[in-house]
Amino acid sequence: MAPRKIIIDTDPGQDDAVAILLAFGSSELEVLGITCVAGNVPLALTQRNARIICELAGRTDIPVFAGAVRPMVRPLVTAENVHGKSGLNGPELWEPTMPLRKEHAVDFIVKTLRTQRDGVVTLCVLGPLTNIALALIKAPDIAEHIHEIVLMGGGCFEGGNITPAAEFNIYVDPHAAKVVFQSGIPLVVMPLDLTHKALTTRSRIERFKNLGNKAGIFTAEMLDFFERFDMEKYGSEGAPLHDPNVIAYLLKPEMYKGREVNIEIETESALTMGMTVVDWWRVSGREPNAMFMREVDDDAFFELLFERIGRL
Fold first, then answer.
1. Residue 279 to residues 121, 163, 185, 259, 282: CA-CA distances in angstroms?
2. Containing domain of residue 112, as a range?
3. N or C end of the chain: which has fewer CB within 10 A?
4. Over the stretch 129-141, which tens digit does the pLDDT of each residue have?
């Protein structure tokens, strides 16, 4: 079977970095490009971090593009308090030498989807949805060429992680999220309700370290830093490892359980801005527009990560 073609849209972020490494370690996936967006840290750092991860994995053949420098409507909100000033705090970083492509990320997305007209490309979105929404606004015809969008974002029963109502990726650019959720494109959503069940425990971090390769050690050092914030916040034995679930779902969908629901994005209320209004009990009468995942086999998820990152 031919590898599944994907574009990774991302704002690295330690958990984004692990997701990218998982994709690189999986022969079932063909990464057509990495498009970067402002989110966890500003765009200048997210595009740099993406290139660092490519160099770490020996994948300097993967084109990396810079995209939106800010959300569509609101000022940019970042998360250095979680990810550190670099976005990848933990390991020793370097200045990447592989070039950043000159083409804008949105133009790359549009061009690629128009070229791959048979609907084989999956968009894997690990950060705010700004680049994807801008692409859909610029070229509405690309919607029919997208196989599906798998994204990390939102929450329902878990509430939010940046406000009581909102998850970070959606909160940063709720207007972009609204465009995407109203697009009619098949959506698979990995929300906090699921990612909070996939924790980076001490024994799991040691497993990464004991892989012995550069990628495994780098991952362990990232997660050592990354988990301290959420462990203090939630009183848990580890931190939720959010973004790799997007890639893991493509590789092992049987690890996940969810429900087709309607999701609307709040863009008006100051109190609940960025809330994903999830009609889990189907009381609104609105048609489902997304598969909202709620359960993950966390042991199988981490075994997949150990195996694939161990290949790099």
1. 28, 20, 18, 10, 5
2. 4-309
3. N
4. 999 999 999 999 9
